[in-house]
Amino acid sequence: MSMQKIPPLRVAIIGQSNFAVEVYKGIQKNGHEIVGVFTIPDDKNGREDPVATLATTDGVPVFKFKAWRKKETLKMLNSVFERYSALEADLNVMPFCSQFIPLEVLQHPKFKSICYHPSILPAHRGASAINWTLIQGDKEAGFSIFYPDEGVDSGPVLLQRSTPVYDNDTLDSLYNNFMYPQGISAMVEAVNLIATGTAPAVPQPEEGSSYEPLLNKSK
After folding, report:
1. 3-state DSSP call for residue 177?
2. Using one digit for the tens of pLDDT, what is the confidence trace for 21-55?
3. For residue 135, what is the DSSP state?
4. Fewer Cβ neighbours under 10 Å: the N or C end of the chain?
């Protein structure tokens, strides 16, 4: 039996870090086209995010917007949206994104957007999900790939993966042993599911939902 051919998608990467680099590579390896990368500005020493370096090497357009919206009105910046929409992406992929992305961008592509979050949603919405998984003594950790909406980590879920939490687990052990490697492969799998028209979109239940604040590194 022959394997199902995966139709190639035009993908915009919105995010940062080595996690985004590996997701970029995996998506590209599966035959999809990376049409643009939107990442954070260079740091104070002029160092750019690694996903920007990779994209530049590949000849892929890179955008480093400080903000996507006007601070005063919270309206989408027209110049930013024009540069984004000109790429004609079929899908936005958000492997790790620390910026606020306007709803106009999230919903613009044909297949909208997918985002990685390191918890089993609807539990532990917010920016320090792995920390709170450990702080609250959860017996299971995991991640979700979901379709972001106007809420905080509240959109329909495409897929989830989980792993037991052991007494000696730390943020680093959970991330390095599970969240990072399994998350990369799951993001690529999610793109392929969307491309083949087989991706689910399961609404998050209200039961079991929680939101916790960002933890500082000193805590």
Report:
1. helix
2. 999 999 999 999 999 999 999 999 999 999 999 99
3. H
4. N
CA-based nearest residue to 182, from 6, 26, 28: 26
Domains of the chain: 10-118+141-162+169-202 (3.40.50.170)
State in Å, rounded, how far the first CA of the chain is from the last one.
54
User: Count of alpha carbons within 13 Å of 39, Cβ hemisphere only?
Assistant: 28
Contacts 24+ apart (CB under 8 A), 132-136: 132/212, 132/215, 133/165, 133/174, 134/165, 134/169, 134/170, 134/171, 134/174
DSSP lists the bridge partners of residue 128 as none
Residue 8 gets which letter from DSSP?
-
Question: Are the C-beta atoms of 94 and 114 separated by less than 8 Å?
Answer: yes
When pLDDT is averaged across residues 73-94 and rounded to a whole number, the result is 89
DSSP 216: P
The first and second tokens of residue 193, run together, are 């599911």
Burial group, residue 72, by CB count within 10 angstroms (0-12, 13-18, 19+): exposed
Asked if 128 and 139 count as a contact pair (C-beta separation under 8 A), the reply is no
Residue 75: what residue type?
K
pTM above 0.90, yes or no: yes
User: For residue 62, what are its two tokens?
Assistant: 């890179």
What is each CA distance from 193 to 14, 27, 87, in whole angstroms? 19, 12, 22
51: tokens are 């996903």
* Contacts of 29 by beta carbon, 8 Å cutoff, 6+ apart: 188
